[in-house]
Amino acid sequence: MKIQYCIPILFVMVVNSYVLYAAPQWENKNRTNIIDEEINLDQYLPFEANSKIVKLNEEATLKLDGGFPYLDGATALYPLYSAFANAVYPPLERYKNGFYQDENGEYTLPGYIMCSRTPKAYERLINGDVDIIFCTAPSDEQISAAREKGLTFSLTPIGLEAFVFFVNKNNPINGLSSSQIRSIYSGKIINWHELGGNNGNIVAYQRPKNSGSQTILELIMGGEKIIEPIKENMIQDMGPIIQVVASYENSMNAIGYSFLFYTTEMIRNNGIKLLTIDGIQPARETIKSGEYPFTQTFYAITTGNETEEVKRFIEWIISGQGQYITRKTGYVEIR
Predict the structure, then answer these.
(1) Of 30-39, 121-130, 253-262, the least confident
(2) Which residue segments constitute the domains of the chain, with CATH numbers given?
């Protein structure tokens, strides 16, 4: 199986570039902007003594000694599936068993346990380059791409998460309704004053098409067309949507979205605040009870014809030990 080169990079935020990037967006009330997000995943590597991943305090009930499933997935889920592999796979020696070396001579993610992010992970799964990806449900385009290859996705629920919206901490708005979110992202509401806030045009940031978070936004919109983003002013890979909303010029008017764990644990930016939705705060209790309206399921996803190792691994993930890691990582277990 071919292993593709993938290196997560921590990008430096350059404030002056942000100013240049967004200048035109204030001139058009009916357009939004689209940005990308990156984070350094080296801190969540498996088989490292100082890794931040959750580790079992006992031996895993499953130990794979060969035929290791090749894994890929969403950025927000990498700490989770890295922890799964750390518990079940034998320690992989650097370089000899799938570690890659970057341009600086540093070893990075092991080849068995990559993180290409959601769009690329689905592409790699469809092409047969990986065995399991860890993501939210596929978009219509991703389903169609699989169908063209004669494949059907098999989704095994492994946990629950909140899809959250956030604003700058100084924005007086503390919560929105589901319908108000849809009105913002369809362009029907363009000024915070319409929502009881300050007089200022809403800057509604989006993520790239077929990313996990953008696919969830499309589901939330319930068929309403999402406002067209300003793509010509996009600066690729310049930093997290969270940091833009928190610290960027005119950020008082910005709104963004992501997943609860990514926002509160992987980024931990004090410049934003999470919004209540329909009066419900995104929290473990409201996710587990289903009260939070934008609760989402995430999955271990395959395309059929799984090997015995893949089947055993997925069965272990939804077992007590796998769900313990899910809970301790910061997600809500599926059972």
Answers:
(1) 30-39
(2) 15-39+161-289 (3.40.190.10), 42-159+298-333 (3.40.190.10)
